[in-house]
Amino acid sequence: MNSLRVFAILTLIQAVPVWANAGGFKVSCPNPLPKVPKSLPRSDTYKNVPFKAGEISEYAISWMGMLAGYGTIEIQAPQKVDGIWHRGYRIVGRTGDWFKGIYVANDSASAVVRPWDEGVRKFYIEQRGGKFLGKSFTMKKWLDFNHDRCKVLEKEEHSDTGTSTVERDVQYGAIDAIGATLKLRTFDYVAGKTERFLVYTSEKNWFLEATPMGDEDVVVPAGTFKATKVKLRTFIGKELQQKGDVFVWIAKDKNRTLVQVQGEIKIGSVYMRLSKYTPGM
Predict the structure, then answer these.
(1) Is 217 exposed, middle or buried (0-12, 13-18, 19+ CB in 10 A)?
(2) How far is it, in rounded angstroms, from Cα 10 to Cα 106?
(3) Which site from 31, 73, 103, 201 is most exposed, i.e. has the minimal number of CB atoms within 10 Å?
(4) Alpha-carbon gap, residue 108 to 89, rounded angstroms
């Protein structure tokens, strides 16, 4: 049920390394470090991206054709970190009534992101769940990224295993799971051109490749959309890692909404379909 749980909190991109084989990525911190802005107007925080503060995307998540849960992606108001305005993202997910007979989950995650290079600054995830009539658990995890040192400090509190703190290597400018999902909306997809960027999730640095497969009319609960179908592949170093195909459909409108996601896991197909969309301002 772990893969379904990952879908239930809408971090599809975070799910990909779960299906991946073990692999290595050698972190190399840049020297000299890239220049970063000392200040940034609040109005520029979401400049030149199709999503704005206040946007809410709601999804229905199905497994093997049956409703498994619901999820929401929210774009938050700019917030200051280290004296500079940053973007804020949040996701919330829960299992549906029918699926609670198998597994119960109520999860959330949030990210604070640097607008000049989309590198993640802070990340938080909270998971509450367990099998129906079985033992439940709670897990909270805080990640504090220091790109200048190419390090991330991870603190975890788990109801079963207690508290732990560890520092790991992170490649400069790496994007988080929520940020990766949103970055897929920023590309002008061109046939034959694959987009590639660096992501950090599940204690790993890895590359995500997005290849457009063509345009389709996609029918979801929120309506019918002309959308670009994009195939996702993950790499650690030069080696393809994931097991199972993952596709996303990005609307061909000014908001470039994430309309649908399809992923193959060991126990069947999982779909995430847009059920309601509220644009930001």
Answers:
(1) exposed
(2) 12
(3) 31
(4) 11
User: 268 lies in a domain?
Assistant: yes
The Cα-based distances of 224 to 70, 159, 213, 244, 249 in angstroms read: 20, 43, 19, 27, 12
Residue-wise pLDDT tens digits, 96-110: 665 555 566 778 899
Contact 248, 232 (CB under 8 A): yes
For residues 210 and 191, is the Cβ–Cβ distance under 8 A? no
In a domain, 28, yes or no: no
Q: Residue 94 sits in a domain of what CATH number?
A: 2.40.360
Number of domains making up the chain: 1
Q: Which domain holds residue 14?
A: 2-23+50-278
Residue 18 in any domain: the answer is yes
pLDDT tens column, 171-213: 999 999 899 999 999 999 999 999 999 999 878 898 889 999 9
Backbone Cα Rg of the chain: 18
